[in-house]
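ok posting inputs for the 2-phosphoglycolic acid job
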Amino acid sequence: MSRIKYVYGNWKMNQGLKEIETFFEELSENQKDWKCVFGIAPQFLHLSKVLNSTQNMNVKVGAQNCSHKESGAFTGDISPVSLKELGCDFVIIGHSERRAFFKESHEVINEKTKLALSLGLEVVFCIGETLEQREAGKVEDVLKEQITKGLEGLTAKDLENVVIAYEPVWAIGTGVTATPEQAEETHAMIRSFLDSDTAFNASTTSILYGGSVKPSNVEGLLSNENIDGALVGGASLKAQDFNALCEEASKLS
Ligand code: PGA
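and the output
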């Protein structure tokens, strides 16, 4: 079964206003013809600017996180209701940096996911093991637990709007990428788990890979049967690299 490929850029806490302008000026004219799904998740404060800059483009725009509640006394939090109202298409939930630095639990990730989906946002649901867990042979257990607990209680209909992003923690921002074989093996395991144990329609679910994806390794990764795209940090910051990633994903879509 061939699924359309994705390239989602996670800008994290990077890019100032000037860099954002340059990025969209330099985004390839060819974007009109790209067959892949592509999108950018800037910092919250820059969502409006990115939405304005992309009005006539096919670029999807997403947030890197959201609150687990719609409204109320949650100082400093960002409601997914406001994200939807603003025009966001997707939200990244459960990124390993949120799990590690902000101590996000499976339960809170589950709450955020349910809420975002109920509002009509696509959820890019991140999972991934640490190096220690990989070396201890626990990859399968860790990923299954993240999926089972994080997506608990979701219906098959909800899950149609979930994209899984497998991001081994040891490959994020380190320059060390999982080999295409390692990534494909893990993606195949994830897909067969989704098939056997969840309400997912596993054959249509998109599973993206993330962790030091760049123009030089994207083809090797995305040409695998079970790797449906990339969630990209560092290499999504420069339009030239992002263009190259999307050109490749488009060819493979
Ligand atoms: P990286 O980040 O591409 O810089 O490794 C990926 C991510 O964290 O989504």
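notes: Residues 10, 167, 172-173, 210-213, 231-235 surround 2-phosphoglycolic acid (CB under 6 Å). Strands lie at 6-10, 37-41, 60-63, 90-93, 122-127, 162-166, 207-210, 229-232.
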